[in-house]
Amino acid sequence: MSRDRIGLLVVPALAVLAVVYALPLVLLLAKSLRGPEGLSLAAYAAFFADPFQIEVLARTLRVAALVTALALFIAWPTAVAMRRAQGGWLTLFLVALVLPMSLGVVVKAFAWSILFRSNGIVNQTMMGLGIVDAPVRMLFTESALVVGAANVFLPFMVLPIYSVLRQQNPSLPDAAASLGAGPLYRFFHVDLPLTLPGLVAGAAFVFSMAISMYVIPSLILGETQQTLPMLVARSFLYLRNETLGSTLSAVLLMIAIAVVLGSSWLASRLGGRA
After folding, report:
1. 80 neighbors 165 (Cβ within 8 angstroms)
2. Span 19-50, pLDDT tens digits
3. Least buried of 27, 80, 127, 220, by fewest C-beta within 10 Å?
4. Domains present along the chain, CATH in parentheses
């Protein structure tokens, strides 16, 4: 079969994606550009001129960046430990990593909201150890949101790094050590460069999901501090302002596209150097 005929096999899938995914996005973008006198960028100008919405956008980007950084901080040593694990230990790692993904996001976010309560296990443990004398306010804070979201999205950071490590020769760090390379030199010149493609892929996954999460902030952060997806839901469900909701959705979409394009470019550069 020729390549042209093989390429025709993807036409049905592309047609389905165009109908159920691309077409709604185009309609959403068109609604954000609709003004009283036709096409207009007034909705975007109003968005970027509103200090409250700029603050929400900054909070959304900050939380997503912190979630990505925390997930990366935990995921890299976890992936290295999985790479070195054998037999039952590797199975245990995989089960512990994948099994929580079978639970719904609502269940995991609600569980974290229970842990962070004033009478939750975290405060009770700290008071029992004498670290604090009174309950510390953790729920409805950005710190709680970052910790909870990083826990939910952690598998999406670990698995890309682990898949890259699995393809590497495990004797390379030992070979570098035999040539006199110290631990720090091996980390920055051997271990880290080998895992960079996985780091980029995992960071892109986690950042994209963290910037668009709605359920986790709603349960952990509440209405005290809004994020951009929460404003989107509020615009459509409560304010019935489709133009504002479409504009906010388009801003989120542009950020997501920028993350995907940037990570793809960086991954191709790293792949070319490998």
Report:
1. yes
2. 888 888 888 888 888 877 777 888 898 899 99
3. 27
4. 1-32 (no CATH), 40-273 (1.10.3720.10)
